[in-house]
DNA sequence: TGTGGTCGAGGAAGCGCTTCCTTGATGAAG
DNA sequence: CTTCATCAAGGAAGCGCTTCCTCGACCACA
């Protein structure tokens, strides 16, 4: 850990002056100020917020108070449910949960610095797309980190993650379709760059291959509604004889069902559909969706405990848990 | 602020011993330990986490990293969207966002102590139901607090809040119904104890009264889907001639539409419906809902800036902002 | 040339807590 | 009756930073 004293020494000034320079006080000579900035940059100085808060009597942090009901009500998105589980679990400990937002246009390096500056003991990462350098960077820093969902880089780096059984869940989905007598089964995936997409595709193709069916009817999408609608159209264009489809998220399924309706295909009479997630959408849509449920709250909670373990024993082997998925049968198969 | 030294003095021991007692170390005599506990309780001692973190070299806080996309994706719940706005705004400052969960079964006093122990500079409160003592308690403490939505107690206490124009939005809703030629218009409200319910009911009745229509067809519910379905049933039983309904949330509207369908009433042919929120549900439902949109992200962002103002000038008058709502016309009227 | 004012910089105290190290008291062992 | 552990408690240092206060250097003015 590099402290203000280190910076002061490097810059050849007193700690007082260094502090002033860092905080942009005007009573410091421009030249020296610049020297301090340079030293700080070179050394990678991050003011310790605890020390700062102690000295200033301020904390620079505001609380966001949410009720449990609130979080419970967020049963509609992947992220929200994992958040719910994590927050509940955190509340049992005496830890604070600090939320960091990674802006879409922020570079990985910048964000990493930001994270390190926030002086937390560890981090849980819930990122929609893991196709950034972030996992690799985080693996290099020695901050304990747990990912929700297997990062692509996990094979090369000692990363810890908690994931649901995407492969197994997709096998369930495919088999439900097959059991319903479907033989021309397509799949709408998430981005190929994401671990979940890869895992789910693997399970799906594995099941189809085992039954000697064509597993090459795949359309890549983005997990969103509009993307699902579009991908469904593509799939239909290329394979008019389609009689079943596995869609990797409820959100995309909502779009896909819309496309099917406008194309005059009835679900499930003409085409059976199985999706993934089991969010509220699955029950408000017509027909109600048969979908693979992930234990999202449990995943969130497990992230917290795993992170605690990692913080307690930083040198231990990475933690990699896979929690079981289940098929929820409704009306779309 | 009461410090460890105060506690030690009160208990008649050294600061060292007090620290040990507080932290449950075993090298302290049970009797003295009890004395310290008593003193701490009496004085309302809360260890300063910054000092603790500085001394221990730990922070007892873990980060939850979420991507902007993540938060953006949570467009489906009231809470989530406000959260999105708040987080984005916070990210612009150098403040940290600490999330505190208020468990459903936790007493207000206990939570207040918890909040004070977390040593934040201020708090934003997003609570579904304000029918607790919490607002009043928070008003007594001198922590700057901003509520999302007008708390009931706001008339008696100098509370700050950011709210959307519930009255105005409800007037819009009622007038849309009236303009569609509806004359027997009911309303499904949230809990009467909540400020939003009261405001929306007021706007609704105001509009109906202005047109000389009966504004007494009201059913109280809970903002949830199941509750909405049930309330719709009640309303239909009591007023079979109903030809329009204002439902105070999309979630309840989903339930209400279900009930209408099973009772053989077509929307909007037989009954027109306007709801409130404009979440994804409004577009995935059949028919797509005409609904009142609140500027939720803006509300969340405004909470942050308002809180900052409050922290800067704690003695200033409470901040009470009302942001405009708009009617989004779709297919249910 | 002397006086006063301004500016930049540093010394040192202190924020509230933990913990190492030391000390005094007590009991067990020789 | 010593000598040694053992235990409980306190003194004091120190975590990393901010900031009050002091001080020297420099310039302008009379």
TrEMBL record, chains A, B:
Molecular function per GO: DNA-binding transcription factor activity; transcription cis-regulatory region binding
Keyword DNA-binding attached: yes
Tree of life domain: Bacteria
CDD domains assigned to the protein according to its UniProt record, in alphabetical order: HTH_LacI, PBP1_LacI_sugar_binding-like
PROSITE patterns: HTH_LACI_1 (PS00356), HTH_LACI_2 (PS50932)
Residue ranges constituting the HTH lacI-type domain according to the UniProt record: 2-56
InterPro entries: HTH_LacI (IPR000843), LacI/GalR-like_sensor (IPR046335), Lambda_DNA-bd_dom_sf (IPR010982), Peripla_BP_I (IPR028082)
The protein's name in its UniProt record: LacI family transcriptional regulator
Native source species: Salinibacterium amurskyense
Phylogenetic lineage: Bacteria, Bacillati, Actinomycetota, Actinomycetes, Micrococcales
């Amino acid at each position: 850990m590099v402290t203000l004293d280190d910076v002061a020494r490097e810059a050849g000034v007193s700690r007082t002056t260094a502090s002033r320079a860092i905080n942009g006080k005007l009573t410091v000579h421009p030249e020296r100020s610049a020297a301090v900035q340079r030293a700080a940059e070179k050394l990678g100085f991050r003011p310790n917020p605890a020390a700062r808060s102690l000295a200033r009597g301020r904390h620079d942090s505001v609380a966001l108070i949410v009720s449990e009901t609130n979080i419970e009500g967020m049963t509609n998105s992947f992220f929200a449910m994992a958040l719910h589980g994590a927050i509940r679990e955190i509340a049992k400990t005496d830890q604070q949960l600090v939320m960091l937002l990674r802006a879409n246009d922020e570079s990985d390096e910048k964000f990493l610095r930001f994270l390190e500056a926030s002086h937390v003991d560890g981090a849980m990462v819930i990122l929609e797309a893991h196709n950034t350098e972030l996992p690799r960077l985080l693996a290099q820093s020695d901050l304990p980190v747990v990912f929700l969902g297997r990062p692509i880089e996990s094979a090369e780096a000692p990363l810890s993650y908690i994931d649901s059984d995407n492969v197994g869940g997709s096998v369930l989905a495919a088999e439900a379709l097959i059991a319903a007598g479907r033989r021309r089964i397509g799949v709408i995936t998430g981005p190929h760059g994401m671990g979940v997409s890869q895992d789910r595709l693997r399970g799906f193709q594995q099941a189809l291959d085992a039954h000697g069916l064509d597993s090459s009817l795949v359309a890549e999408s983005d997990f969103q509604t509009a993307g699902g609608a579009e991908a469904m159209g593509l799939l239909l264009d290329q394979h008019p004889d389609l009689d079943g489809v596995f869609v990797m998220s409820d959100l995309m399924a909502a779009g896909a069902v819309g496309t099917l309706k406008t194309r005059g295909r009835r679900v499930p009479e003409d085409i059976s559909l199985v999706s993934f997630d089991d969010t509220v959408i699955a029950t408000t849509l017509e027909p109600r969706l048969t979908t693979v449920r992930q234990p999202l709250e449990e995943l969130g909670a497990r992230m917290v405990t795993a992170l605690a373990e990692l913080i307690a024993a930083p040198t231990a082997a990475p933690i990699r848990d896979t929690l079981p998925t289940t098929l929820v049968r409704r009306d779309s198969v």
